[in-house]
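From: lab user (bench 3)
To: helpdesk
Subject: output format question, protein + iron/sulfur cluster

Hello, I'm new to running complex predictions and I'm not sure whether the block I got back is the full result or only part of it. Here's what I submitted:
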Amino acid sequence: MKGDLRIYVHIPFCKSKCNYCDFNSFAGMDYMFKPYFKSLITEIALYANELRGRRIDSIFIGGGTPSYVDVQYIYEVLDCFKFDQACEVTIEANPGAIAYHNFIQYRQMGINRISFGIQSFCDRVLMYMGRVHNRATAINNILECKASGFNNINADLIFGYPKQTMENYEESLNVIKSLEIPHVSCYSLSIEEGTLLDKMVKKGLMPYPDETLDRAMYDLSIKSLQKANINQYEISNFAKPGYECRHNIGYWKRDEYLGFGISAHSLFNETRYSNTDDIHQYIATLNKYEKPVVDSNVLTQEEILSEYIILRFRLNSGLDIIDFKKEFDLDFEKTYKDKLTNLITIGLLDKSSNAYYLTRLGMDFANKVFVEFM
Ligand code: SF4
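Helpdesk reply: Thanks, we reran it on our side. This is the complete output you should expect:
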């Protein structure tokens, strides 16, 4: 059995659906809050054996928009877990779906990290995205969050959105810096099939994203945030020293985690599980006191090895060959000699002391590197 455990809880409800979103989230289904949370609590109870005797190092309440539901529901979920003050407890919040008193209540129930879905500080871009908030609301919510005593705050940003300009993306980064937000996740837009944005682009109502601009924005994120000591530590994540997200680092280091709620995934006993993505099936299954797992895969040694390599390469610290040897009793350099030589020659990988890591070019073509180790 591995050390500490991580917990993910999925809350799939939102105030409205954003134009680019293909997450398993619903707007206009507030009437499902009560049965959904009842099922969530039943599901957690069904994992009593897995939870017993394990220290929880992080809990991440994600969505959807967890801040959209009544805080009492969040309290009831957190009350199912035993965790201490050292546990990193994050909740995702969206501007326009949170108020000052909510931050106070969150702190009282042990939440110590807020992750805001900001996406942009430009009102025009927010409108193209179909977000419910505007710049003023976002800034106000962040200031309220800080005033309530939170200092561990993340802001998600999207770049490469159609009609987004370099200037307004830079301005968003500048607002982040001026508000002294210590953690930023910058995601390159990908247009997902079936979303409103996808339909608009196909109909010619919105332009296709400009790939060159997208890469220039990524470069800007790295350089601009670095000037404020918000340093890149993963392909899409940046933090001031000490503010790196422990929960996500745990995913990349293959710590064990249990996911609860629709579409939630788990890694436990070297088995990957996933829950149904159908909310009605989720509730019906839990009403019968059965786990809503629809897929489970016991990982082979090859799959574990492959996951380990790919996930470590996501981190700027890269893959440490001494750690690798300890974990698998294998010499990384000898085992992958030809692949490593080739990836270094074409400029996608580099090595410093004991670690191999993606170069800046390697981050643009990360999938090309990953595929080599699948
Ligand atoms: S708030 Fe987040 S989860 Fe909800 S619709 Fe928008 S992008 Fe999707």
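A quick orientation on your result: The chain has two domains: 5-251, 301-372. Let us know if anything else is unclear.
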